[in-house]
Structure formats: structure tokens, C-alpha cells
Amino acid sequence: MTARLIDGKAIGATIRAEVAEEVQALARHGLIPGLAVVLVGDDPASHVYVRMKGKACEEAGMHSVTHILPEATSEEELLALIDRVNDDPTLHGLLVQLPLPKHINTERVLLRVDPRKDVDGFHPVNVGKVVLGDPTGFRPATPYGVQQMLLRTGIETRGAHAVVVGRSTIVGRPMANLLIQDGPGGNATVTTCHSRTADLGAMTRQADILVVAIGTPMLVGADM
Question: Which of 18, 176, 193, 210 is the most exposed place for a label (fewest CB within 10 A)?
């Protein structure tokens, strides 16, 4: 099988242009979509991600609010901020940047986000909707982005054997769920592998579509 190089940057630029058009259409009706991003602590990578999200919102014409809180912020203080964003009618989406400091219960924080504003797709309501194939839920960005790349490059997923390496709740599991659903970018036969899979190479070599979403560098080599 010949490998195909997918230009993710070009696809991303196209999607952002489409989003900007949709934002302009909403603005003509008096509605400006608003996104709140909450960052706790001094993780350098998280600060980069948050700046990128703010820039993307600005370029799309969206209203963006960033809350940067100190490392020592208590869990109750963070939950109170989430409650305020949940109740703010000018903010339609809420992202809590992960990871959170160790003294904060991440699960409790994610449960506090209004599922209707949970644009990361981490709330159990949205996780369940992805599993059920309910399009009214928010889909996690990375798996949905991979699915969009497949769709927009004309790669047929129907009947294909897709191997997903990784089982995280953020990428691996929702990726498998999206690929197996009945609809565009789905109907694949999906195998989920991970770091404990016996003879991983035997699995990946069978793949028509291989998605690697695991935090182990060089786990999948050229011979796999």
C-alpha cells in the first residue's frame, strides 16, 4: 500500500475560513459566539495552547475570554469561576486547559462544566453522545480533526480496517468510536491497540488506516 501525505495545515486553514464565514453569518443576526478558556498554573505548553486558541478565536471573529489563574488556586475557586462562565449568556463555549495542578480534582472540574458549553467534549454527557452516535453532542477536537482530514482528502473509511493505537479518553477511545459509527468518515472495522498489545506490529501492518495516539515516542516504527 502506498502512503499518502495529508496536509493538515492546509485542511486546518480551510476549516478556519469556513468557521469565520459561519461566525459572520451569526453576527449579521446579532450573535457573536463567545469562548472562555481557563488556565490554572504555569505549565509552559498549556500557555502556548491557550494563546493559540485565543488567536484562532480572534481570527475567526469570535469573542474570546481567557482566565489565567495562579497555581495555588483552590478547587472551590476554580469551580466558582466555572459556574460564572456557565451562567454567562455571552459565552457559548468553555475550555478548561489540562493538566490541572495535582491538588485539584480534574474529574470534578470537568463534571462542573455545562455540557452545552463543553466544547472539549469531555463531559460524560458528550462522551455518551459520541458513543451513541448522537450528533448533538460535542466531539473531542483531535479525533474529530483526524476524521475531517480523512473525509476532506477522500480517504474511504467504509469497510476499511482502521487500527487506533491508544486508548485515552481524550483521543484513542473517541477516535475508535467515530470511525465505527454509521455515517461519513465511519463504518470502518476498528481495532484498538495500546502499549500492552501483544505483537503490535502484527496489528498495525493489517491497517488500511492507522491512527497513532499514544504518548510513547517511536512506539510505531517504519516496519510496522
Answer: 18
